[in-house]
Queue: 2 jobs
Job 1
Amino acid sequence: GAVVSQHPSRVICKSGTSVKIECRSLDFQATTMFWYRQFPKQSLMLMATSNEGSKATYEQGVEKDKFLINHASLTLSTLTVTSAHPEDSSFYICSPLGGTEAFFGQGTRLTVV
Amino acid sequence: AQSVSQHNHHVILSEAASLELGCNYSYGGTVNLFWYVQYPGQHLQLLLKYFSGDPLVKGIKGFEAEFIKSKFSFNLRKPSVQWSDTAEYFCAVIFNDYKLSFGAGTTVTVRA
């Protein structure tokens, strides 16, 4: 099956700093990448959709200047949480689209203190 | 608005019991339907999917789901669960693009 690598799996950062999350599709190319956020006991909420080489499309209520997405290649996408605050603490999951099927990274637990 | 509903938040059952998890969606058009499972500490994994054809879909690990268009439902079933089926189960729907909309998830706890 398709292999997706997401790093880091856990990160703790101070309020006001930035955190970069990487997502790699190791054995397939992903033109489209989805980024999700999951709060405790809630479902995955789509944050943004990015296509390789293009600007990401953000869902309503998601600040594009706060959550910077770069999808510079077909195997790598990054999400940078800028000037993180405690309310940004959450579980972030990447999902590269391989053909017509979406695969998922293992997620990144972000804690902002 | 398009939405996905999972009826059960937490299900607790014993090994060998039968499992059925409900999933309903609100949309009158063509949909693609999925069930994902997330075992503790692991990635989301695809259990099964329905795009078209036979509405009874068989997936991995003995799971199956039935698409009932008239009821806007895609319930997941397993005749006899094992302790290893303890996990979080998510129903997901693609309504009219590539974006997945997820239900809230159901935690299934199987007691040995």
Job 2
Amino acid sequence: DTEVTQTPKHLVMGMTNKKSLKCEQHMGHRAMYWYKQKAKKPPELMFVYSYEKLSINESVPSRFSPECPNSSLLNLHLHALQPEDSALYLCASSNQGHTEAFFGQGTRLTVV
Amino acid sequence: AQKITQTQPGMFVQEKEAVTLDCTYDTSDPSYGLFWYKQPSSGEMIFLIYQGSYDQQNATEGRYSLNFQKARKSANLVISASQLGDSAMYFCAMREPFSGGYQKVTFGTGTKLQVIP
């Protein structure tokens, strides 16, 4: 199983809503990542978890709150988002010493 | 700081022809890795090929090969025998030296490739 599964695929939320994005992998990878990708732009790193501990927070606003409940799961909790937060949110995982990261299909988020 | 540059916003190629996508990079680290990813309109980032900074030979994966010129700091992707399914956005990316069990990757701005029948 070389899959990273993200749910939901699409999400529309209001600026006062609270929602969560979910990412799951069963490859035994110990590093998991959240990226944000605006249209026609490259992915930008948001957070990195390594061995279930937050290792990198790229100065992301506190309205985005990551969580890593176990080595297979990664969540991104969303609260009071702005329309400019509308983007494709990609989850990825990798293992130390390996080359590539494996990406999920992403969640297309629209904030209205 | 690491920097990745892709100077071709868009490229066209005839089906069954070969195409080269350009990528240059800048880093002061002697140890780094270079990737190419493909992103179709569905959104998923698909790994294509990897080149380590100490690898002596150019990487190849099926129809994909990486033309690695270390002195020029370039890592161009060559796709042979283009297929309609190759139409997608292509990102060059660079990994910093491994640290703490994870990899920090910087992506270039991407090249949109369109294959013409």
